[in-house]
Amino acid sequence: MRALRGTLLSLVVLVMLLPVYAMFALSSASDATDLGGLTFDASQLGEHLSQLFGQGDFPLYLRNSMILSLGVAVLEVVFSGAAGYALAQLTFPGRRVLFTVVVGTLSLSPIVVLVPMYLVVKQLGWIDSFQGMIVPFMMSAFGVFLVRQFALSVPRELLLSARVDGAGELHIFLRVGVPLLRPALLTLFLLQFLAQWDNLLWPLVVANDPRLWPLPVGLSQLQTEYDFSIGLVSTAALVTAVPPLVLMFVLQRYYVAGLTLGGVKK
Amino acid sequence: MTLTARLDRPAPRVSGRGQRWAEARAGSLLALPAAIYFLVFWVVPFAGAVYLSFTSYDLAGLPEWTGLDNYRRMLDDPGFWNSAEVTAVFTVASVVPSIVLGLAIAVPLSKPGRLNGVLRALVLIPAAMPLVATSMVWSAIFADHGLANTLIGLVGIEPKPWLTEEGLALWALVIMTTWKHLGLFVIILTAGLQGLPSEVFEAAALDGAGPIRAFARITLPLLRRTLLFVLVIAVVGAMQSFVPAFLLTKGGPAGATEVLPLYLWATGFGFERMGYASAIAMVLLVAMLALSLVQFGVLKGGDDG
Which residues form the ABC transmembrane type-1 domain (chain A) (predicted)? Predict the structure, then answer.
């Protein structure tokens, strides 16, 4: 019974991974009609890789995506970390208002404020710039909320004893708060990196200059260009999938923690 | 009782008022960037979206107040109704199988097993892959000579033009979306199942409850909170889905996959009708909020927790 269950389960998961394998097979396809086969040809893949990195704008898109995703993830960790900690552990004027705004923002999505957010960025003169792509997403209500929830469980006595020892508030935040918040901050880094790596809609709206296109926009263009074979496009997709997959495996514990947050009653 | 006496003593107030001042200063400093950020990029845009939805605005000049015109126009706009319907069908058709299949995989996966750790990691791979990369692979899978047609050919079904036939294209998107999100739901449901108290199941087994009975009478009710969470994120996520329709079909053929976010984007940035696009955004927001509330109401009804 148990062995049967295990075998069945493994089978289901293998079927789920078929499209992932198809990506490998397609990345070694030699021409446009070679779509249904599931054979993998490593030398063709190597050929495509050197084409992809040797000509065209793919390396540029990759670089832009790195700047965008790392920029957003780092800023998110720093600023949502600071705000979440402050909301959970410090009393300051405007605290309630800020928390109300954060909770209210949780139910909004970028698609709802797409048009006015574009107008704000245009007003700031940030169309066709990295700050125009990064700053609107440098924090998130989800991030502040996640860090706050986590920081609430930091025992007040710990902070209090640091105060008794005469440490300043910012010193306490950096030396006591940040190390204790590390799991929440890593979760946030990972989720924001992945979200930006995948962000198509916003760069599509604010980046008209192809020199600024991140991978999602660049790839959507590659796909429609006829001189790009399916093999080359699939190789591009394969390379694009590598950084998120590596990050996920390294930080899997945090990834799962982030996903299950709120869904499971503690 | 010296010990109690010591515990009862109030916590030391570190230099009283000076401490409060230091805390307020540090707190304001740490929260200031957030305050500015949320004001500029969410509060102002949200207020702007509400305002713009009552105006006509084409990016040139100033928005012109037109009252409820945008909302009235929406009532007679076949393009809007088509995309609202497409979004509704897409949401129901992708959410139901993701959750049912997710549960079917999560139940055995949450039990102890030698391979389960590995399987849990593998099941997440589709969810961790970038949506853009997976969309490109799926557009090849759904191509005329693609894997989908090869597979159905094995059981003797004629090849189908998945992405170019009106009755099929939306279902192709549904299949891809279900596949993409399944792992996510499996992991959340697995965590929920593992958090259930085992005593209840042992007691039920002693009372002679079979596995199906135990699942229906104990597992599902206890899992209600997790199911609600998964349902809400699935529905809200499906209603905002933009990338698959944009990359696989561009909303075609003949609007068959023109989901609401795609229609909104095309209205605003294709035709520069920012006021009308904002009105569509408002309707989308209200629909998402209403559905979330209904879900909370239905699933929490009669819940004492």
Answer: 62-251
